[in-house]
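F.,

This is the one I mentioned.
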């Protein structure tokens, strides 16, 4: 049964995956990224002040530490990013390490990245999730709308599915 589920997830990931950015510089990509907007999942729904810290490990994996406030309480989720193909470092698999979720790997696709690494978008193969992120807690409204338009036109996302994250 587990093999069938794993195989199904791999097939879905391949069939629906997005083209990712080329020439991603992992060293430059590391650091803090604030979540500006997202297609919420049950964990991140109604979170505020959310951000990820990325750290490149010597073995080539990436430690990802998610922080947010939900219902007045701080939450922290630890994940490990594994690059699928070293020739395409913008496509990862994510394993959840705290809380630990066995046998599950989530796709991670950097589909938009500014040339100065000031903003980026992480897509999800079937568009059920997505994250618009920046190095600062605020993003110009015009830029945010341009990103939403690109997500709609180039990747098939519904713009109205994205919700802005409050940072205070």
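My design for it:
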């Amino acid at each position: 049964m587990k093999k069938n589920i794993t195989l199904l997830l791999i097939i879905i990931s391949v069939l629906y995956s997005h083209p990712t950015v080329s020439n991603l510089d992992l060293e430059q990509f590391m650091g803090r990224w604030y979540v500006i907007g997202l297609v919420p999942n049950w964990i991140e729904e109604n979170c505020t002040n959310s951000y990820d810290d990325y750290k490149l490990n010597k073995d080539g994996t990436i430690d990802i530490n998610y922080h947010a406030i939900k219902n007045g309480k701080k939450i922290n989720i630890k994940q490990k990013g594994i690059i699928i193909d070293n020739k395409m470092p913008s496509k990862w698999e994510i394993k959840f390490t705290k809380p630990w979720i066995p046998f599950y790997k989530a796709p991670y696709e950097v589909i938009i990245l500014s040339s100065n690494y000031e903003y980026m978008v992480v897509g999800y193969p079937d568009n059920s999730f997505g994250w618009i992120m920046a190095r600062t807690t605020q993003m110009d409204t015009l830029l945010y709308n341009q990103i939403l338009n690109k997500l709609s036109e180039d990747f098939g996302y519904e713009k109205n599915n994205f919700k802005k994250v409050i940072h205070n």
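The domain at 2-164 is CATH 2.40.128.20 (Lipocalin).

Talk soon.
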